[in-house]
Structures are given as C-alpha cells and as structure tokens.
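Data availability (excerpt). The following record was deposited with the supplementary files.
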Amino acid sequence: MTRSARHPAHRPAPFLATMLLTAALGLAGAVPSDAAPNGTASRPAAAAAVDAAGSGVTAAAAVCGHTDEQPLLAQGSAGLATREAQCELNLATKTGRHTPIAADGSFGAGTAERVRTFQRCAGLTADGEIGPGTWAALNARAARPRPCAPDGAATAPQASVCGHTDTRPTLRRGTKGAAVAELQCRLNLAMEPGHYPPLSIDGDFGGGTENRVVEFQMCANLGTDGVVGPNTWAKLADWSSRDAYCTPPRPTGYPIDGLDTAKYQHPGGAPIDWAAVRAAGVEFATVKATRGLDVTDEYLASDMNAARAVGLAVAPYHFYTGAAAGTGAAQADRFIAAVRAAGYTGRRPGDLPPVFDLERMDDGSGRCPAHLTVADATAWLDAVEAAFGRRPVVYTQKSFLDDCLGSTPAFAAYPLQLADYRQSITAPPLPNGSGTWLMWQYTESALFDGIQAPATADVFNGAQEDLDRLANR
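Predicted structure:
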C-alpha cells in the first residue's frame, strides 16, 4: 500500500485536529463506532461529555461504558464506578506518557496517585479523591484526551487496562458485546488521539471501529483486513498497556527524514504548520500536484510554497492513471501547467526534481492500471524532463514493476523513490536493472508535529550535502 491508497477499502482519511487544537476548542465529539441509517453520526455519551465540558455544563457520562454512576470515590472504594474511573484515568493521562494502571475496580494507592496526577493535569486540587469536579474533568478529558504534563515514567504494564473482559474472541464488523467494548477502549489507548479521533466505547463493531482496526493494523505492521484475530489482539494488548502510542519504527542508518502530503493531510481543511514540521527535523517533502487528466490537488500551491519557505527541499508529484490508452503526454501537460502556475521551476533553491508516481490503481482494487505501458510512462517522463531540465524521480515498488510491467528495467536510469512498509527489511528491494534508490517511503502511519493526520514518511539515501545538491542549494 502506498501514498495513493486512501480509498475506504484501504484506509480512511482521518478527521481530527491535533491535541493542542482540541484542547483550545474542547468541543469536538468522539467518533461514533457506527452511524445512523441516514448516515448521520450518532450522539454517544462521550460526545455529550465533551460538549458539556465545552459549554460549562456538567454531564455524567460512562466514557468507558461501565457505568454512568459517579459517586464520591476514595482509597478503599470498589466496584463498577471505580473501574470506570480507572479506565477513564488511563485514557486521560496516557498523553503524558503515564503507563495505564489496572482497571480492576479496586481503589488502592496506585489509583489514588494516578488521580492526583490527573488532577494536577486538569488544574484541580490534587487530593486523590474523585468528587463532582474531578468526575466532570475526567469525563471530558477521557473522551477527548489533551496534553497532560508532567510526563510520566514507565511502569510495569498491566493486563487489564480497560476492565471489560479478558476474553479475546475473533471480532469483525457486526459483532457486539463486552469484547468489542474492550477492543474500542484498547484502540483508544493504542492510537495517538491527536491524529486518530477516539472511538465511542459502545460495544458495537461498526464502520468506525473497523476503520480504526485497519489503521492500527497498518501501524503495527499486520495484515490490514479489519478483523481482530489473535495477532491483532496481541499487538493491541501490547500497545494499549504501554506508556506510548503505536508508532511505526523508523529505519536506522538514514539520518535525513522526509514526508509526502496531499489533501488527506488537511482533515476538515486544516492547514499544515510547516514551521512545526521543519522544527521536528523533516528535511524534504513531496507534495501532490496532479492525478491523471483531471485532478489538481487543492493544496499544491500553498503546501509547496510554505514548505520551501521554512527551508524544506520540495518536489511536486503526479499520480499516473492508465484509465485510457496513450494519455501519458497529456497527463504530463496537465502536471507541467499546474506546477508552473504554483511557482515551480525546478531550478529555484529548494526545488527537488518532479516525481512520477507509478503504482497500482487507487480505487481499492490493487489492480494494475488498465492501459499502462512502458511507452506511456516514458512519454510523461520525457515531457516533464524537457519542460524543467530535471530528470524526474520515479516513485514505485519492485513488486509493482514485476507484476504490472514484466520486471522491466526501463526505469533503471531514473532516481527512485521506493515504497515498502515492511518492518523486517533494512532497505527497499531494487527493481530490475536499478543499482540504488534515492528515497524510501517506509510507512503511511507516521505522526508529524504540525500535521493533523497521519502521513507517509521517507528517509533519504545520502548525506545532507547530497540533498542540498539535488535541491539546487
């Protein structure tokens, strides 16, 4: 799966602003695990809790789904209300790298200390007891976690961090019950809430839950079928009980980082804070320009120019479609016109060579483009090279060229951006005839400061001076 794979059959586009934005607004509801028949989102209790907190109205809510009874709790308390509080404490404090505590329904010294930690995060009196004020803040911050400081220290992981059930049956869309509620809670604990909207914990395995399972499977390097079997449960139990959220490992040995952006990195029209991206250590970006004959990405000009302005090396890219025969040259014409209109010349300081995205169809089928030929791809490459005086970079995969173009060596003379998300490899496999690669796109689940959705991430195969040379600097 590659950067074009944003069809719902592969992976949904995320919808959430960052935790900092959410903290400032305090108004967004939890993502429903399913939708009403007319397609409108249901109104779970968690969403009501957040809305109430945003409006100053206190509303009891069973964010974790155990009970909406909210009595005064203190050391020595026991029962469902304590279990609910422990689960909500885990959701609310993991943003500060606090290892989840046991959600066992017994209010001991460890629970009291975590309550005090939460109370300090929420600006409350840290007395270790859960009264009305702490309950209200806990409901809001468990439904929509916000930054919590100071950072915690890792402690031993607990087996029960949500408290619904210890059973691990195979789950899929349409399943209901306690095991689904356990799944939804653990997904919320495993996936960073500033990029993945927390699910409603309602025990109903709907479309939202299925999408989140797929996103987690991508992050954890599992098969992406949306079904929760033994391997997914094992990885989920691991990540949900840690003091950190699921993050794909970065390849070692390649110190220069990059990323790829398109409209999917602008959920709800949110801008990318390119200064924050740069401050996080990103050195280069490829920005989607066009697709086929009829699509120009709406963020091409703003993203390309803003990224260059903060010092990133930037390349525009075109997604090739082979829906009709002999369209490579026409697709090139559209790309050339679009990027020139956005200010790209290929010769400015910071301009990387243009990128030709050559991969499987982006309709979720995984098929080879129907009318793809080496000649048609070469027509695009030749036209763009003539227009800008730069040899384009070809974005592809060895497996794609093997399956769809008979292992052709036709692109061996071009610099390559290769996509391969396997965590078991130390470098992407080279296509037939190629001797090296330029960029390796190693995940589509990376989290970057300044971007309010997951993004594909790359490493550069070279030193800083090599990147600077390639970017006319």
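Summary of structural features: The chain is about 30% helix and 10% strand.
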